[in-house]
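Appendix B, example 12.
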Amino acid sequence: MTDRVANLTERLGGPVPEGIALLFTRIALAGIFWRSARTKVEDGSLLTIRDTTLFQFSDAPFNQVPILNGDLGAYVTTYTEHLLPFLLLFDLATRLGALGVLAMTLVIQTFVFPDMAVWWQTHIIWVAMALVLIVRGGGLFSLDRLIGHRLG
């Protein structure tokens, strides 16, 4: 019986199941930030920022992020929210992309939604997924791995 459990554990912890789990983690986390990024641009455009996005980052009373005020904040946030999901989805520098998502999540939690209910309902899941990708990388099904093998 112990051999069967050990065999099953070894199979579930192998590179293929881990690669599948990491692939789904990358897709899920990328999807969250991609959908957020798309709300900041004009419908039908790739990166034309909405006037409402620029207003949100202006000196309006509801802008709680002190380091990202003004047009620069709107552009940096919007472009970063488009770039990071791309890195995660296609696994180009997954750890760097996940670190960026982690940083954005912590800024959002600290300045935009400091309520602890949001932390326990949503942001803790984003942080957990980002940390898994930072620690484990993109896994077996990743361009980083393919490029690494090609380069030796």
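The CA atoms of residues 25 and 44 lie 28 Å apart. The radius of gyration is 19 Å.
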